[in-house]
């Protein structure tokens, strides 16, 4: 059963603490001097830490990470309230109104007897109507510039796909991937760094498109690859430390062999 009274009490407490920290005479100097731009990187960082806790299934850390993210919302809302723009209640009201409007099958008279896929299509149709109401006329309007590049690529591609601008399937994307790879190799030998960077960006964009067609979240996939690399490289460090050495005391051939050993050990455990 939901303890809404306790939730409200704790939200009120958090909002009050944030107001205290921002008080011009008795607050914290660091908190007082912050603005939207200076806090934005922390907001992004905290969102990533929430995702990291989920990836690691660190459920004991999860409430704290969600709290850190919630603090970012309260921080921005407090700064906005000080400027007479809006406050936390406005933030909560707008997201509540949006959720109700986007779920007519729960809060309205539409039938709930539909697939998850159809619900996603309906959700996108409602969002498209909202964008039209905001005078966002272009198909790609409203895709936030501040998103991680891979995530934004997926969103741009999804928008274009809704109007028919899309590859028929993964095989077509793979063919384009081969083409972009060949162009990158050519650019490496013939073009300047700016052109090489552009070709690499094209390749990454196609990789994001392939992930979309395979129903893979590229950010999540890359986080997994990063975690795997970290885990295996630490195995190399551990093996070398047993001999009183560090990676800089080894060479590529030895470290590659230790990498393969770590890889084999993971497969055996899996």
Automatic annotation (TrEMBL):
Its EC number is 3.6.1.8. GO terms for biological process: dATP catabolic process; dGTP catabolic process; dTTP catabolic process; dUTP catabolic process; response to stress; TTP catabolic process; UTP catabolic process. Keywords: Hydrolase. It catalyses: ATP + H2O = AMP + diphosphate + H(+). GO terms for molecular function: ATP diphosphatase activity. It holds the Pfam family MazG. SUPFAM superfamilies: all-alpha NTP pyrophosphatases. The keyword Methyltransferase does not apply. Residues 34-106, 173-232 form the NTP pyrophosphohydrolase MazG-like domain. It comes from the Bacteria. InterPro entries: MazG-like_dom (IPR004518), NTP-PPase_MazG-like_C (IPR048011), NTP-PPase_MazG-like_N (IPR048015), NTP_PyrPHydrolase_MazG (IPR011551). It is an enzyme of class 3 (hydrolase). Belongs to the nucleoside triphosphate pyrophosphohydrolase family. This is Nucleoside triphosphate pyrophosphohydrolase. It comes from Paracoccus zhejiangensis.
């Amino acid at each position: 059963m939901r303890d809404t009274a306790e939730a409200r009490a704790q939200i009120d407490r958090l909002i009050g603490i944030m107001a205290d920290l921002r008080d011009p005479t008795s607050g914290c100097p660091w908190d007082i001097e912050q603005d939207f731009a200076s806090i934005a990187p922390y907001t992004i960082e905290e969102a990533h830490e929430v995702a990291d806790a989920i990836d690691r299934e660190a459920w004991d850390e999860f409430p704290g990470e969600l709290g850190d993210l919630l603090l970012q919302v309260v921080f921005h809302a407090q700064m906005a309230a000080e400027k007479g723009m809006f406050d936390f209640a406005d933030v909560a009201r707008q997201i509540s109104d949006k959720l109700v409007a986007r779920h007519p099958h729960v809060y309205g008279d539409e039938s709930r007897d539909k697939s998850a896929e159809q619900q996603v299509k309906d959700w996108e149709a409602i969002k498209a109507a909202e964008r039209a109401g905001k005078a966002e006329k272009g198909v790609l309007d409203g895709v936030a510039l501040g998103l991680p590049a891979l995530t934004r690529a997926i969103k741009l591609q999804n928008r274009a796909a809704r109007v028919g601008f899309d590859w028929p399937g993964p095989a077509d994307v793979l063919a384009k991937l081969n083409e972009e790879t060949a162009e990158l190799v050519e650019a490496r030998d013939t073009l300047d760094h700016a052109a090489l960077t552009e070709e690499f960006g094209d390749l990454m964009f196609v990789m994001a498109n392939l992930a979309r067609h395979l129903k893979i979240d590229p950010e999540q996939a890359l986080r997994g690859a990063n975690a795997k690399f970290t885990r295996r490289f630490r195995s190399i460090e551990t093996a070398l430390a047993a001999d009183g050495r560090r990676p800089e005391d080894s060479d590529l051939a030895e470290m590659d062999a230790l990498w393969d050993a770590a890889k084999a050990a993971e497969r055996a455990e899996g």
